[in-house]
Design brief:
The protein is 56% helix and 12% strand. It has 204 residues and is of the alpha/beta class. It has a single domain, classed as Rossmann fold. It has a 5-stranded parallel β-sheet. It is globular, with a radius of gyration of 17 Å.
């Protein structure tokens, strides 16, 4: 079984992935931000490194999806292969931070990969307002995220909403995280778990 969590930067994907993995005894697949060789360069010089970063993420997530399906285990994944292709890469292209040539090359690569993989059995989308995202980003204090602008987050949020609105790759649960605190309020985590339970029982 393949569960995936989607959402904007700072929505709480990694936190919830770890909490649900522990609760359900699923294996977590986390996003590779520590060993990513492009992230620092990208945030310092987006135009120069956007294509490299997006191809790195695409390769990493394609590999993850193949491994998830081959493993036969119950796995929860932090962010999906679709978010790079439907949100991050098109946003960089629209902002003039990725050339037409690179974007067309990227899209072609994604379409080939997408034809070879299945969507997750259940997608959990964490919907968040911009003020909540900003607060969470500041709270975790990653150096390379200090330069993320509100305009950039807003553009991503718009693309997330458009993507989710047309999502047809499997079952979908939308969780509004603005007033939830999974970490310090067990009842909030319980609410999320109850919502997911209702969907999971329909998967078996």
């Amino acid at each position: 079984m393949h569960i995936a969590i989607a959402g904007n930067i700072g929505a709480g994907k990694t936190t919830l992935t770890k909490l649900l993995a522990k609760h359900y005894n699923w294996e977590p697949q986390l996003e590779d931000v520590v060993d990513n060789p492009y992230l620092d360069d990208f945030y310092n010089q987006m135009e120069r490194w956007s294509f490299n970063l997006q191809v790195y993420f695409l390769n990493s997530r394609f590999r993850q999806v193949l491994q998830i399906r081959e493993s036969g285990k119950k796995i929860i994944q932090d962010r999906t292969i679709y978010e790079d292709a439907h949100i991050f890469a098109p946003n960089l292209h629209a902002m003039g931070l990725m050339t037409n040539r690179d974007f067309e090359n990227y899209k072609s690569l994604f379409e080939l990969m997408e034809s070879l993989v299945q969507g997750p059995d259940l997608l959990i989308y964490l919907r968040s307002s911009i003020p909540n995202l900003v607060a969470q980003i500041h709270k975790r204090g990653r150096d390379y995220e200090n330069s993320i602008s509100i305009d950039y987050l807003s553009r991503l949020n718009e693309r997330y909403e458009a993507w989710i609105h047309g999502y047809k790759n499997g079952k979908l649960v939308i969780i509004d995280v603005d007033n939830l605190d999974f970490v310090d309020k067990p009842e909030d985590l319980g609410t999320v778990i109850n919502t997911i339970d209702a969907e999971i029982h329909g998967l078996f």
